Amino acid sequence: MGLVIQYVFVLVLLIIFSIKDIQTRTVPWRWVMASVLGTILIRCFYSPEPWWHYLLTGLCILLGLLMISISLKDQLGGGDIQLFGWLGLSLGFYSALFVLIGTLLLTIVYGLIRKRTFPVVPFMLISFMTLLIMEWKVGAL
């Protein structure tokens, strides 16, 4: 039941973030922080892995993408980096890695077709929904 609550929480917020990202090309910092607090609250009641596992995953993704963004001259926005860190905190290592790789692959393909900047959060949503479908098919949900 706790996993379903966490996934519904992430799904609803990614839908909201996607709409905002498409409309304004921004991800509000306060919204991300509220999402982090919500995730911490959920993790207080449901955490199949040790709490530090989620924290370490979120921090590693956040810092890793920050270093990549700096080296690529800010091709990835700060809000996108924060959201990936939040996903690491919310999902844990393997699920967050799946969403990260799926998002990167989708954005590469879309970028090759469109050849201009575009919002990244909708691709996070698509990758997360793919994760949900895969976990539902194998019976993890």
UniProtKB/TrEMBL annotation:
Gene3D superfamilies: 1.20.120.1220. InterPro entries: Prepilin_IV_endopep_pep (IPR000045). The keyword Disulfide bond does not apply. Keywords: Hydrolase, Membrane, Transmembrane, Transmembrane helix. Its EC number is 3.4.23.43. GO terms for molecular function: aspartic-type endopeptidase activity. The keyword Lyase does not apply. The chain crosses the membrane at residues 28-46, 53-72, 92-113, 120-138. Pfam families: Peptidase_A24. Residues 9-112 form the Prepilin type IV endopeptidase peptidase domain. This is Prepilin peptidase. It comes from Paenibacillus enshidis.
